[in-house]
Amino acid sequence: MQLDSVGKPISERPWYGKLDAMGLERGSFERLGDSHAALFIDETPTLLVSFETADSIGDADGAMPLAYDLAEDAGWSLLSVLCDGDTWFRDRRVFGYFDRLVDDGFFEDFDRVVFYGSGMCGYAATAFSVAAPGATVIAICPQATLDPRVTEWDPRFAQFRRLSFTDRYGYAPDMLEAAERAFILYDPDVSLDSVHAALFTRPNVTKLRCRWLNGTVEADLIKMGVLSEMLDAACEGHLTEEVFHQLYRARRDYKPYLRRLMETLEDEERPYLTALLCQSVAERLRAPLFRKRFRIAVTKLAQAGEVPGWINPEAMADQ
Questions:
Q1: Number of structural domains, the chain?
Q2: Average pLDDT over residues 66-87
Q3: Spatial separation of the C-alpha atoms in residues 31 and 10, rounded to whole Å
């Protein structure tokens, strides 16, 4: 069964009229049924294709798709495909829209095309990338499919299994065959996301592990400034696994990541590594929590007669 509409009509969103006017002036804006729409802004021969949800944009005054700000700052062309509701973009009107783009040779007008999405939108980015052979794809925690014959082990989306994933643009890993390169980002400690990521194993797919980001990989990468730099590198044709890991070093100064790492080490009762981490953080950042946990870890090491020589007493003092 295919669902043509899930959630309220996308035209009821406060930003709908602004996107419509922007498309008329700078490219095009098309409503694809009640639950989907597509904004195209024509700028340079580099095209960012993003898939986003209406809820992620919000209803605040001036709200715009995430990819709009990135493309606007860099001067790229933008194709932003939006959905309202949990549709996984499985709608015949969305299929028809991409069919028309292919028939019109739309993607052939661009020197470089980058597809991006996260979660449900990551599924769409990988699935519809087949329309633009040679594209680069960046997908965060994407689902491969919700077809219960393949992913009955994933109970998170059981109520959406009535969506059809067996017709066109269906099984996302197979749709990556024409991509030049695809990057799948996920947290290996989130087991269900890891299994989906495994289904994307292909010669042209690079899987990027983002440990201790839990279920907030996209939000954390945005806050660290990593996602915008990744998309920039992809749109410049420079994104590699090595470039990602360079960018991902930003986590060394990102306190939510550091707290999760510290809590994991404490839960595993590893005071040596806890003290090592907390001292490093306390020496670089204003982090009273890490100083406190440093002292606790050092106390445990002292009780066991295992205080190492690298301990810095100054890091134990409150600031």
A1: 2
A2: 94
A3: 8
Pairing of the two strands 27-31 and 46-53: unpaired
In angstroms, the CA 285 to CA 33 distance is: 50
Per-residue DSSP letter, 132? S
Task: Please give the biggest Cα pair distance in the chain.
Answer: 73
Each residue of 92-109: b (16+ CB within 10 Å) or e? ebbbebbeebeeeebbee
Alpha-carbon gap, residue 156 to 146, rounded angstroms = 10
Has residue 210 got a pLDDT over 70? yes
3-state secondary structure of 140: strand
Residue 2: inside a domain: no
Nearest to 218 by CA among 77, 72, 58, 51: 51
Domain hosting residue 276, numbered range: 255-316
Nearest to 208 by CA among 241, 230, 256, 159: 241
Q: Would 5 be classed as within a structural domain? A: no
Model pLDDT for residues 212-221, shown as the tens digit of each residue: 898 899 999 9
